[in-house]
Input
Amino acid sequence: MRAARYFGPHDFRLVEIDRPAPERGEVLLRVRAAGLCHSDLHIIFDELGGYPVPAPLTLGHEICGEVVELGEGVSGIEIGHRYAVFGPVGCGNCAYCRAGRDNLCINSRWMGIARDGGYADYVSVPAQALVAVPQAVPDAVAAVATDAVLTSYHALLTVGHLQPGEGVAILGVGGLGLNAVQIASAFGAVVLALDIDERKLELARQHGAAVALDSRQLDPQHPPLDRPITLVADFVGNDQTKLLAQQLVARGGRVVLVGLGSVGGPLLGLRDVADEIAILGSFWGTRQELATVLDLIARGIIRPRVETHPLDEILTWVERLRAGEVESRVALVP
Ligand code: NAD
Ligand code: ZN
Ligand code: ZN
Output
């Protein structure tokens, strides 16, 4: 079968490998769609400060597929049915999993980051990672729901405790951030969208942002909203945006860090202390939240934008995402 694999820094290729056999407790999926995430670029181009990614590894951590084979000991999963894959997997037994925080599982091997993922014709997946896809949700949308929507939902609602009526800034309105704009508006926030690309800003306006502005033109002391910005979510995460997020947030507010644009970053020590700014990291989302976002999508409350392209074109789309030429999200279809 075809698989797009990471062989080490700057070495990502589409190759032929054997179709995997599902191990005990796993199922084999025929991939229907797999979303392309900026995190894939961070892996391929070695931008994670030496974070260990095994090689060779099939990337692709936003997966929707159809069950074609069950491994030993799997029950309650139907051959032929469509499932979205909960990428952080979760062992179900550790203290985090038992507390419902399975995104932080200590025993997990994340799909497409620590074990083979979905840029392939087939992928073997632990059965506990499967979440049924509502009929109304197309394959590519279900795929990007597993991260581009899930991560945005978790960052704003669970980590950020978004409140209706508050002013929220979304920094970076690309694949994740455009969903964040929709989620924040759907839950009653007034949204300031910030990006450096006018096309992304126009999409943010169309998807519910009250104001959308080039972040380089923003005066963080005088943000153009009619209320204080008490929550800032940074979907870029480079040194400039981390600094801007801390400058922009109102006294007593929360900054949620999602983007992995730089490994370190500046802290505004005096400001963060004296104005009680909470700086919060946010990682992916929980399995329960994935079921919730699939339901919100099925009901039309979130409408993720995704374009599909053949898996054979994956290297082109990696380059285009890197060049900022992807409109919002791309999913590869084998
Ligand atoms: P993307 O490339 O689709 O979008 C990034 C957006 O940021 C683009 O619209 C781009 O124009 C904008 N941007 C770039 N530099 C900017 C700047 N200086 N100021 C304002 N806007 C700027 O990326 P994505 O797939 O949405 O991922 C965003 C980030 O989130 C990546 O770093 C990714 O690795 C990370 N991520 C984190 C998690 C998590 O669990 N924490 C999950 C998924 C992705
Ligand atoms: Zn991702
Ligand atoms: Zn666990």
Remarks:
- The pocket of nicotinamide-adenine-dinucleotide (ligand 1) is lined by residues 37-39, 42, 147, 151, 171-177, 194-197, 200, 215, 235-238, 240-241, 258-261, 282-284, 321, 324 (CB under 6 Å).
- The chain has a mean pLDDT of 98.
- Residues 134 and 298 are 6 Å apart (CA to CA).
